[in-house]
Amino acid sequence: MLLNASGCLDALVAPDVARQLDAFVTKTITPLPREGNAPPRIAETAYGMLNAIGLANPGRDAFLRQTLPRLAEVLEIPIWVSVGGFSAQDYAETCAAMDRSDAAVIELNLSCPNVDEAADGATEIVAACRDATAIPLYAKLSAAHPDVGAVAVAVAEAGADGLSLINTLRGAALDPRTLKPALARTTGGLSGPSLKPVALAAVHACYAATGLPIVGMGGVTTGQDALELIACGARDVALGTVLFSDPDAPARIRAELAEAAKRADVATPDDAFGRAHEREKLPHSGRKVTA
Fold first, then answer.
1. What pLDDT digit, counting tens, does each position of 8-65 carry?
2. Domain coverage including residue 68
3. Tens digit of pLDDT for each residue in 84-137?
4. Catalytic site residues?
5. Domain-located, residue 288
6. C-alpha separations of 165 from 24, 33, 148 in Å
């Protein structure tokens, strides 16, 4: 299944792009409206982009009253709602409100690098949300943690039904003419091709640790990228930065994914699932190893 990464596609502005996906993930919703960070808040890098949007959104009430019903009407595909906040109570109250909505899945944004407010611990948030709703919960984690597999185990034990891996990583860029930060808040979330090796490692580690369903994302620009995430343990794949430059990316990557599977000598992309966890026996050199 192909999805978009949260915040990388406005489905009401580009519904034809969103309809190429199997499900649509909304921008992160917080209890109250947020204007986000001051501009400039997007900067290009050599191998991707930095964003410091800051969870700009209309707030929970307006989203539930206006945006979500409109998305359901226009798209006619499952809608995953990304939920954020600054305490476990914030998250849980929003999740409870989603019970009476068109949300198919709730993705808990536990890893945004572009807000200053500190949220409660990931396990506390997941546990509170699990008590608040019966809707499936996916925990979106950051690979910045030194042991993301351990975090995955903790949120799984707290009640997460799946994982979204990974979010952006904090980075900075300078204006080459002034040598001053290109972003108003200096740092932002790095996305794009440079993120792919980090995403592969995180998906591999978290699948090995939990066996939970995973949406893999980070640097996907081709079908081969998607296939490699599947091989590491992702059941589904999300597209992010590529959607800003290629509105036909979902259809293109879907076609490329089938071709990449053939090159890897698997019948379908699903048959590549978990292949990176299979240990191949390496031929022994026959030479005696001495100290």
1. 999 999 999 999 999 999 999 999 999 999 999 999 999 899 999 999 999 999 999 9
2. 2-277
3. 999 999 999 999 999 989 999 999 999 876 565 545 699 999 999 999 999 999
4. 112
5. no
6. 16, 26, 10
Per-residue H/E/C for 96-110: HHHCCCCEEEEEEEC
Q: What is the 3-state secondary structure (H, E, C) of 53-88?
A: CCCCECCHHHHHHHHHHHHHHHHCCCEEEEECCCCH
Q: In this structure, which amino acid lies at residue 251? A: A
Q: What is the rounded CA–CA span in Å between residue 176 and residue 250?
A: 34
Residues in the chain: 291
Using only the alpha carbons of the chain, give its radius of gyration.
Answer: 19
Q: Are 36 and 84 in contact (CB under 8 A)?
A: no
3-state secondary structure of 139: strand
How many independent structural domains does the chain possess? 1
Assigned token pair, 79: 């809608």
Q: 128, 31, 138, 141: which is closest to 88 by C-alpha? A: 128
- Does residue 141 fall inside a structural domain? yes
Residue 147 domain flag: yes
pTM of the entire predicted model = 0.93
Scanning 115-195, the segments in alpha helix (DSSP H) are 122-132, 148-158
Looking at the chain, list the stretches that DSSP marks H as alpha helix, in order from N- to C-terminal side. 15-18, 60-62, 68-75, 88-98, 122-132, 148-158, 196-210, 223-232, 242-245, 249-263
Q: Is 246 exposed, middle or buried (0-12, 13-18, 19+ CB in 10 A)?
A: middle
Kindly state whether residue 284 falls inside one of the protein's structural domains. Answer: no
Q: Is 262 in a helix, a strand, or coil?
A: helix
Residue 177 sits in a domain whose CATH number is 3.20.20.70
